[in-house]
Specification:
This protein has about 130 residues and is mostly helical. Helix content is about 50%, strand content about 5%.
């Protein structure tokens, strides 16, 4: 099962680490307890929209950018999960900036499926 809170936490942690910042720095700036921010990053707590807004402000990241990255992670997780399904699952794709065309993902029992996206931002929408 794909947990949205875990994907969100992973993206928040990567954003923080890209900036070379500690949990303590971000929690202080966002006015959130260090323990709670840690639980959000580990996907153990659901973050409210107010909390996400405070964390995004502390990281100087737009919430829409954060959600886009979470959406991309979710799409890839769904594609990976569908690769283990019994039947191919059609995947509609809405290209943005670059072009990434995926029409379906067949069942691949013994092979690993790797999806590489272009270096530009790509919006992948899975049904």
């Amino acid at each position: 099962m794909i947990l949205l809170r875990r994907l969100l936490g992973d993206v928040l942690r990567r954003q923080r680490q890209r900036q070379g910042r500690t949990l303590r720095e971000v929690s202080s700036s966002a006015r959130v307890s260090l323990g709670y921010l840690s639980e959000v990053e580990r996907g153990q707590k659901e973050a409210s929209s107010e909390l996400l807004s405070a964390i995004c402000d502390a990281l100087d990241v737009r919430m829409s950018e954060l959600m886009r990255e979470v959406s991309d992670e979710l799409s890839l997780a769904e594609l990976a999960a569908s690769a283990t399904a019994d039947e191919p699952v059609p995947v509609p794709v809405r290209p943005m900036l670059g072009s990434l065309a995926v029409t379906s993902v067949p069942k691949v029992p013994t092979e690993r499926v790797t999806i590489k996206a272009p270096t530009e931002a790509v919006d992948v929408v899975a049904a």
